[in-house]
Amino acid sequence: MRLIVGSIIVLLCVFGGYMALGGHIAVLWQPFEFVIILGAAIGAFVIGNPGHVLKGTMGSFGALLKGPKFSKTDYADMLGMQYAMFKLIQSKGILALEQHIENPAESRLFNAFPSFAKNHHAVEFVCDYMRMVTLGSNNVHEMEALMDEELETHHEEQEEMVGAIQSLADGTPALGIVAAVLGVIKTMGSISEPPEVLGHMIGGALVGTFFGVFVAYGFFAPMAQSLRSTFNSESKYYASLKAGLLAHISGQPPVMAVEFARKALMSNVRPTFIEVDELTQNLPATA
């Protein structure tokens, strides 16, 4: 929604302001200038990025339209899952968790929290590290280093997509100059034409510079920043899982481990202590 609203504001302000100044909107319609700029930008985009980045970037436009995929309810669901899991381990031992982490799709523990169960990456993250705990790995520092490595890799994969869009923003103004220069070259080839014809041709050439800068700073750069903010927001989901798991591994009781996880969340989506306490008091049976 923010993408649509913001785009409307940009278009209305730029073109509305131009027309209010007495400009003729038809002069800006230079389709071949647009083909040169956008075509070259797309070609450079394809040259500069591997296949998985191209595919991921195309898929990321859904995130631009929808914003962060986790709501406050999703974070509460994740905290509730952690509490239920830690409570199960506390009451029945670590081996009681094996049936859940070996077959998460059929786990009553995970399926009791639907938004978490649908997040396959989060489920895999929890299962991988709790499986290591069941196998005897309980060194908090080693586990933290491994988690950091995995999360950093995930972050770098996301940054590749952000960087790909940012490269469009960085390169499009220069491609606008290319289109403008080509327009000037075309104009110089018609130097014998009357001034009103030459003026129209030069104006058309300058549209290339305008369009390159306009789409770069009006759309591509804000889109890259929006996507980065969305990814950063979503990364806190996994940071919260990490904090809770490490607190549990270090020996914290369930309620404290969940509090560690809660504190890792951003304030605008972080459930309050009272909300988490009420949630944990009304959890369904998951054993």
Quick structural gist:
The protein is mainly α. It contains twelve helices and no strands.
Question: Any overview of this molecule?
Answer:
The chain has 287 residues and is mostly helical. Helices cover 78% and strands 0% of the residues. It has twelve helices and no strands. The chain is elongated, with a radius of gyration of 27 Å. The two termini are 41 Å apart.
Could you give the topology of this structure?
Elements: H1 2-20, H2 31-48, H3 51-66, H4 72-92, H5 98-102, H6 108-111, H7 114-117, H8 120-134, H9 140-188, H10 195-249, H11 254-263, H12 273-281
Global Rg: 27 Å
Structural class by secondary-structure content: mainly alpha
Tally of contiguous helical segments: 12
Reading the helices and strands in chain order gives HHHHHHHHHHHH
Shape by Cα distribution? elongated
- Please state the average pLDDT score: 88
Q: What's the number of extended β-strand segments? A: 0
Characterize the biggest β-sheet.
none
Multimeric state of these chains?
A: single chain
Index terms:
287 residues; mainly alpha; 12 helices; 78% helix; elongated
